[in-house]
Design brief:
The complex is a heterotrimer of chains A (526), B (408) and C (318).
Chain A lengths: L5 E4 L7 E4 L4 E4 L6 E4 L10 H10 L7 H4 L5 E7 L13 H16 L3 E7 L8 H16 L5 E3 L8 E6 L5 E5 H4 L3 E8 L10 H4 L3 H4 L5 H5 L11 H16 L2 E8 L20 H16 L2 H9 L7 E7 L1 H16 E4 L3 E7 L14 H12 L3 E2 L4 E10 L12 H13 L3 H14 L1 H9 L7 H8 L1 H6 L2 E5 L3 H6 L3 E3 L2 H12 L5 E4 L6 E4 L1
Parallel strand pairs in A: 4-19, 5-6, 5-10, 6-7, 10-11, 13-20, 14-16, 14-19, 15-20, 16-17, 17-18
Antiparallel strand pairs in A: 1-4, 2-3, 8-9, 11-12
Helix pairs in contact in A: 1-3, 3-4, 13-17, 15-17
Chain B lengths: L1 E6 L3 H10 L4 H5 L5 E6 L9 E10 L2 H7 L20 E6 L3 E2 L5 E2 L4 E4 L5 H4 L5 H4 L34 E4 L3 E3 L6 H4 L2 H14 L7 E4 L3 H13 L5 E4 L3 H9 L4 E3 L4 H9 L2 E3 L6 H7 L5 E3 L2 E6 L4 H9 L1 E10 L8 H5 L3 E5 L6 H11 L6 E5 L4 H9 L8 E5 L5
Parallel strand pairs in B: 10-11, 10-15, 11-12, 15-16, 16-17, 18-19
Antiparallel strand pairs in B: 1-2, 3-4, 3-8, 3-19, 4-7, 5-6, 7-9, 13-14
Chain C lengths: L3 H10 L2 H16 L32 H22 L1 E5 L12 E4 L6 H8 L2 H5 L1 E6 H4 L3 H11 L1 E4 L9 H7 L3 E4 L17 H9 L3 E7 L1 H4 L13 E6 L11 H20 L2 H9 L13 H8 L14
Parallel strand pairs in C: 1-7, 2-5, 2-6, 3-4, 3-5
Antiparallel strand pairs in C: 6-7
Classes of the chains: A alpha/beta (526), B alpha/beta (408), C alpha/beta (318).
């Protein structure tokens, strides 16, 4: 039986609580009265995942069964969510592998010859062969990769994109040509958090800069409240308009999956337990982990964390028509992650963990840390933000100015050049976005190397636009002072210092809420 | 008799300078410096056209430090005459009536700045082809005539130099200082004149991008001159220290980057492609070296204003094909492959000629130069002065001067 | 970039490792209340599943090695310690001569002295084979209290709140261990005995072992609830063993329990007066009830703190 999430009120019996901070964690003693939002415990995973997949494909929602849609001689394209999902990457076999294998089995039975499999990475970096293999499995990889039928989406290939049309708001819809010209596009999604899936899959995952700029901009993001709730997110509204247009041109069979909250392997089991329930073993392994991380050189620590694979359980799989499927999916995600929170508070505390969607097998640089904290975690709410307008956010992360040159070349420039000019998303957008989006070197690296697109750091910054617009103060605990200042924030050495620093905004005895995240949670603020 | 700092020939100290110079500069500007404070006779006026000048402020230039720490190329050894009193960035007052370089009379007591180049005119010779064409800084006769060898005042045995209480200068070297120009600004006229020369030699195309590597006095004044005198578009300055970065911006830099960010910043500014060799495993990289990143594309004009291998390397690697690389200050050795492969024009710039001093005086009057002279020392505190000058960048100082009259 | 080995060596040699570890351990020890009961934040209580107490394993305490160690501890540690604090007098041990174990010792309970008193009163052969039922929630709530009491007193945990008896006492009797039970379930607050719970009677019936009643007088006066050491002056305490009782055919645990309670009361009365007087009073049904008279609290305590008069003159009936 998994227990629901709840809001703890810190009292004198409460032990110190775990706060994640990059590649490490600390035990923090919160002031009495602090509210701590705990996500629901992991739902039990489906035992017979393969059976559930088969049922979903044979009895889809608002659609004919998949075998009926597959005919000999057709052009079939399978697109799947890239390595940014799930977080952390899951233990093998990946759920996408299981689904793709069954889809291909059915396609083979129907005599479909022309099949291509595309990683829907939009402007994300290209996946390496090994990463593709981890997702689709050895069998699929061996059958398709050497023939060039399993590949990364390339949004900058002038011959690889097809203009579909414009929405009634004049938004350009342009997606991957192969996908657009297929008789059937099967999209395999992993719906880790509520923002994923639905029409965010095809119209965004297989699109390019021309399409994305309509919803990936500071204006839209400020008006997405939050982007974790697609009914109230301007970004999702735009994607939905595009999706509806696309649905008229292209038959899409959407498969969406939901996962439970098992984000840490057994050896780090204590990180998923509520602290006061830690037994002697949990305490011992926590102490050992703390010391181990302290003594380990940075590279070892990095490899240790990046090598972590989550033993996710499958909680649901739905297939069929995109919108109908997504309703079911979101309900399941909410069941796993939603916690009811009564009212806003003055201060929001969040620990930014080691991995976000854009640094799998890579480094979490300051911009990604900001995106993770002020983007993803801040927006993990429904209704209204957890922190009141003009309140303060306190984040934990080392924010070391380390950049992965292979994956994030434009981030370095963004950090050095753009952020030293301005940190206002709108100003940045007007002054620099075009330059970066069209910079030939970034485009070259995006297409041929494993680099995020030149414009990607801008999107990360827009992701945080709503938070920057909403809160008055942002303080990072334990962060590199210079890096944080460059981004227009402040650094503190401890929670006490941070509270002292924000006391000008929120007073001496503010109400504090700490989101105990990860595992993932959505605060339903009433 | 007068007090002066003298650079003398000392084999052990010179050897020490050569061997330790790069590693332990502190030793060289300190106990091992081939410099001594002496009381000696004032340099006499021997020929017509010469006048006595009493230095008021006298700057410490990078080339002076180079001579002291032995990092100067031996190339110059035949062009100086030992022992000499260094100091060629001088503002002083005339002790005799004289005329200036154009022949206008200058009564004694006039404040003057000195163009240090000792060309044909000063040496009592008929103009060599360079001098005849007005490019006195390129004079071919710097070792002959009735003055001892010495490419400039401050490297010549006979003339004295700024680091002494008196020197002699030829009327061709004299430029009057307007009354409204303070000594602290006037002492910067000579280095700014060099920057003017640099800006002219750079031949920046309209709207062209420029990289200035280095933000010491040379780099900063170069930035100033490039911004004021040329039609340069984006000027990127590589600055190591915080105050340098601020000054570079106030002197007209578009963007400022730290040395390890140099290549990245230039690439962004010029939208070039950046290529880097596949990294070698650690130990191998240390042995082989040299295989660094480079830009395909880059700035139109690159200026090395440091004179170190690293700086010159960066400039050569980040200037576009067919672009121009300007060497300002004494260059160190570097890999010249880019100059060959990218058909770079490598241009030197030495001292100044023509109306550079007049233009520089104008700049010195208008530019935001307050606080640029960040240290004034009496002659007898020369060790402190040299030490300060040696780590000027780190200490947030652009120019260190000897306050020659001071006894404090 | 320093090599990993250098990094680790520096970390260890600079003392950062030790410092950090000490800091962490201190934080955890305080936060998780090491050595005490762990606490659940008030607001989290509704979300904590009902505690399923795992019985603290005590089987190790009855292994031969532990028995030998305990024998030494009791003989050379506990007994001298007890004699330094109080003056115990033991009567009626001869009843044990007629018996072979195992038996259930049932005693009234007013003080922490009671357990060591009974144990040290027993002949060595009996003592070595005797275990004591102790409240799980008091003696077995932390590992160190549980371990030490199991080591020294051979205690094992029983649940006193829930009605069902834990399985252990029966198993112990079956294994041939004598068991000491205080059927009141807790120490008396005023020295007067409270109602006996039927557990001991039930145990005796199911295992078909005799019950040996034990009356203790004066331990409340010597070391009442709340004291950690006997009052000064080596107060006198008496322990009196009575005739063994066996459940009668057709007798329920309740009736048998009442019989045991009377037997203990008789022993206390006998100790205060004489066997003869007590027996006669018992025959008339006038044994002074051990259960507290309905008087003011101070009078009850006053009564019980009067030290027992131990007659040393030789009597015919003893």
């Amino acid at each position: 039986m998994s227990r629901p999430g709840f809001v703890l009120e810190v009292d004198d019996r409460t032990p110190p609580l775990v706060v994640h901070e990059g590649e490490g964690f600390r035990l923090e003693t919160f002031p009495r009265g602090t509210r701590v939002v705990y996500p629901p415990e992991s739902l039990p995973g489906i035992r017979d995942a393969d059976g559930a997949i088969r049922r979903a494909l044979l009895e889809p929602t608002n659609s004919e069964p998949l075998p009926v849609l597959l005919t000999a001689g057709m052009r079939l394209t399978i697109a799947f969510d890239d390595i940014s999902l799930p977080l952390p990457p899951m233990v093998k076999p990946d759920i996408r592998q299981r689904i793709i294998e069954q889809v291909l089995t059915m396609a083979a039975a129907a005599g479909v010859d022309d099949v291509e499999i595309i990683s829907a990475n939009a402007l994300h970096r290209r996946l390496t062969a090994a990463e593709l293999k981890d997702i689709v499995g050895e069998r699929v990889f061996r059958s398709f990769f050497p023939q060039g039928a399993l590949y990364n989406h390339d949004a900058e290939d002038p011959d690889g994109m097809l203009f579909i049309g414009e929405t009634d708001r004049g938004e350009v819809v342009e997606i991957n040509k192969r996908a657009a010209e297929s008789d059937l596009l099967v999209y395999v999604n992993v719906n880790l958090v509520a923002m994923d899936g639905g029409h965010k899959s095809v119209p965004i995952g297989l699109a390019g800069y021309k399409s994305l700029r309509h919803h990936h901009n500071s204006q839209t993001m400020v008006n997405s409240r939050s982007f974790m709730d697609h009914t109230k997110s301007a970004m999702h509204h735009s994607a939905w308009r595009m999706g509806k247009l696309l649905a008229d041109h292209l038959k899409i069979f959407t498969i969406e999956t939901t996962l439970n909250n098992d984000v840490f392997p057994d050896s780090y089991g204590f990180l998923m337990k509520r602290e006061w329930e830690w037994g002697v073993r949990d305490q011992a392994s926590m102490l050992a982990a703390r010391r181990g991380l302290a003594i380990a050189p940075k590279s070892v620590r990095h490899n240790l964390y990046q090598g972590m694979r989550a033993p996710y359980g499958l909680t649901g799989i739905n297939a069929g028509e995109t919108e109908a499927v997504h309703e079911l999916t979101v309900a399941k995600v909410h069941q796993q992650q939603m916690v009811e929170v009564q009212g806003q508070s003055d201060v929001l505390v969040m620990g930014v963990p080691y991995v976000g969607p854009y640094n799998v097998n890579s480094t979490m640089n300051p911009i990604l840390a900001t995106c993770m904290g002020l983007g993803y975690y801040f927006n993990s709410y429904r209704g209204q933000p957890v922190v009141r307008k003009g309140g303060a956010v306190i984040l934990y992360h080392p924010v070391e100015p380390d950049f992965n040159q292979l994956h994030h070349p434009s981030y370095v420039d963004f950090f050095e050049e753009v952020l030293s000019t301005s940190t206002d998303p709108a100003v940045i957008e007007a002054k620099f976005e075009q330059q970066y989006a069209t910079d030939p070197w970034y485009i070259h690296l995006y297409r041929t190397s494993h680099a995020y697109h030149g414009v990607h750091p801008f999107y990360m910054w827009y992701w945080a636009a709503h938070a920057m617009d909403h809160v008055g103060d942002v303080v990072w605990v334990g962060a590199d002072r210079k890096a944080v200042e460059r981004m227009g924030f402040r650094a503190a050495s401890s929670l006490q210092d941070a509270l002292e620093m924000v006391s000008g905004t929120v007073g001496r005895s503010p109400s504090i809420t700490y989101l105990h995240n990860p595992p993932h949670l959505i605060a339903d603020v009433r | 008799m007068m007090l002066a700092l003298e650079l003398f020939r000392s084999i052990p100290r010179y050897a020490a300078a050569r061997t330790l110079g790069s590693r332990m500069p502190g030793l060289l500007v300190g106990p091992m410096a081939p410099v001594r404070l002496v009381t000696r006779d004032e340099p006499p006026v021997r020929h017509d056209g010469w006048a006595r000048v009493r230095p008021l402020l006298s700057g410490i230039c990078g080339s002076d430090l180079g001579v002291v720490t032995g990092s100067t190329s031996l190339y110059f050894s035949a062009l100086v005459s030992m022992p000499f009193v260094p100091g060629h960035e001088v503002v002083g007052e005339l002790l005799d009536d004289a005329t200036d370089h154009s022949g206008a009379p200058l009564p004694r007591g006039t404040r003057v700045v000195i163009d240090p180049v000792l060309a044909c005119a000063a040496r009592g010779l008929a103009p060599c082809p360079s001098c005849a064409s007005g490019r006195t800084n390129l004079c071919n006769h710097v070792t002959v005539g009735h003055v001892s060898p010495g490419l400039q005042t401050g490297f010549c045995r006979d003339t004295g130099g700024g680091w002494g209480e008196q020197l002699v200068a030829h009327s061709s070297q004299l430029h009057p200082v307007p009354d409204d120009l303070s000594d602290e600004r006037a002492v910067l006229v000579e280095p700014i004149a060099c920057a003017v020369q640099l800006a002219r030699r750079a031949q920046v195309p309209s709207g062209g991008s420029v990289l200035v590597s280095g933000a010491g006095a040379v780099g900063l004044f170069a930035t100033l001159a490039l911004r004021e005198l040329t039609v340069a578009g984006r000027i990127t300055v590589i600055a190591k220290h915080g105050r340098q970065a601020d000054l570079a911006r106030s002197f007209g830099a578009t963007d400022v980057a730290s040395p390890d960010e140099a290549m990245r910043a230039v690439r962004r500014a010029t939208r070039a492609l950046r290529v880097a060799p596949a990294p070698l495993p650690g130990p191998a990289a240390r042995i082989v070296g040299g295989a660094g990143e480079m830009l395909l594309g880059g700035v139109d004009v690159g200026v090395d204003a440091v004179g170190s291998t690293g700086s010159l390397d960066t400039v050569l690697r980040s200037t576009r094909a067919g672009g121009r690389v300007v060497l300002s200050g004494m260059p160190a050795s570097a890999d010249l492959s880019p100059a060959w492969f990218r058909e770079l024009e490598v241009a030197g710039t030495y001292a100044s000629s023509g109306d550079a001093f007049e233009v520089a005086t104008g700049l010195a009057r208008l530019a935001p130069l307050d606080g640029v002279v960040g240290g004034r020392y009496p002659l007898h505190r020369w060790r402190e002065a040299l030490d300060h000058a040696h780590s000027a960048g780190r200490l947030g100082t652009v120019k260190v001067c000897f306050d020659v009259r001071s006894r404090a | 970039m320093t090599s990993p080995v250098v990094h680790v060596a520096k970390h260890v040699l600079s003392g950062a490792l030790l410092r950090g570890a000490r800091q962490d351990v201190r934080t955890v020890a305080r936060g998780w209340r090491w050595g005490r009961r762990s606490m659940v934040p008030r607001s989290a209580e509704p979300y904590v599943p009902a505690q399923t107490t795992e019985p603290f394993p005590t089987a190790w305490a009855r292994t031969p090695v532990a028995t030998v160690v305990r024998d030494g501890l009791q003989r050379f540690g506990l007994r001298p310690l007890m004699h330094s604090g109080i003056t115990p007098t033991v009567r009626g041990l001869d009843v044990l001569d007629q018996l072979v174990g195992p038996v259930v010792f049932v005693a009234n309970h007013t003080s922490h002295l009671d357990t060591p008193l009974i144990l040290c009163s027993l002949p060595d052969t009996w003592r070595r084979k005797t275990a004591v039922a102790a409240a799980a929630d008091y003696f077995f709530d932390t590992w160190w209290r549980a371990t030490s009491s199991a080591m020294v007193f051979n205690t094992f945990p029983i649940e006193r709140r829930s009605g069902s008896m834990s399985a252990t006492p029966g198993d112990l009797l079956a294994d041939g261990w004598n068991v000491v039970v205080f059927p009141e379930g807790t120490r008396s607050p005023d020295g007067w005995t409270r109602r006996f719970k039927p557990g001991a009677a039930f145990l005796s019936q199911t295992q078909q072992v005799p019950v040996v009643p034990v009356g203790i007088r004066g331990s409340f006066a010597a070391m009442p609830r709340g004291r950690g050491w006997p009052v000064p002056g080596r107060p006198a305490v008496t322990v009196r063993f009575g005739e063994p009782l066996l459940p009668l055919v057709g007798e329920g645990p309740r009736e048998f329990g009442a019989r045991i309670e009377n037997a203990v009361a008789l022993l206390v009365d006998e100790d205060a007066t004489t066997w003869w007087d007590a027996t006669r009073r018992a025959a008339r049904g006038q044994t002074p009830a051990m259960s507290a008279p309905d008087t003011a609290q101070w009078r009850r305590v006053w009564d019980q703190t009067r030290p027992p008069v131990v007659r040393t003159t030789r009597r015919i009936w003893r």
